[in-house]
What does this fold into?
Amino acid sequence: MQWDILATILLTATIQSLFGVGVLLFGTPILLVLGYDFITALTILLPISLTINLLQVSKDYRHVQAPFYRQVLTLSIPCVVLCLLLVTTLKLNIGSIVGLFLIVAALKSVYAPFNRLIESLVRYERTYFIVMGIVHGLTNLGGSLLTAIIHSTPYDKDQTRATTAVSYGTFALFQLVTLGVSLGPSAIATSATALYMAVGVSMFLATELLLYNKMSTERYRTTFAAFLFLSGTALIFKSLFLR
It folds into this structure.
């Protein structure tokens, strides 16, 4: 067990327990900065992310918005799989662009031009879902685009988290299957992985009890907007300064 990995999991699992994303979105750049390669980061983080999402969906599956999820399955997932297979040969730095988009999405409720911009982008849903799958397959940052489009909907907090969780969990499931086929099951199923998953589950249970259940929908949406803003800022910082 690596203590730097454990600390990363404690932080990112708490975030994902609240919003449905976080382990991959923040855990990937953190582990890269700590010196781990992209594939190693994936094999560590994907089982944790999927486990937390499964717990969230099992609790709130009635709140999943089926039309949204169908577009994830049909448009995003094929792109995730294809781009993950190419990830070792293609290196694209699009973090700053995604980061700016997240900041705009976070501020849309307080600045009318930003609100009109988000509405115009989300209007092209098919293209958006395809781009989201490509970004996630290549960089593991598709969760940022997922949270941005979810934030543009009128969903309440349970609908928001459940729909985010089932979509993000499906990303992780297909990524794990792809890695299992290309690298072999032994690259993913390790004793350390089981321990890290247990830590992630513990953080989910604690966060559910102490934070999520006490949040109103209004407070959740405000906190979610702050999460988007911080995510965007972190992505821009990583892209500009952490090569």
The first helix runs from residue 3 to 19.
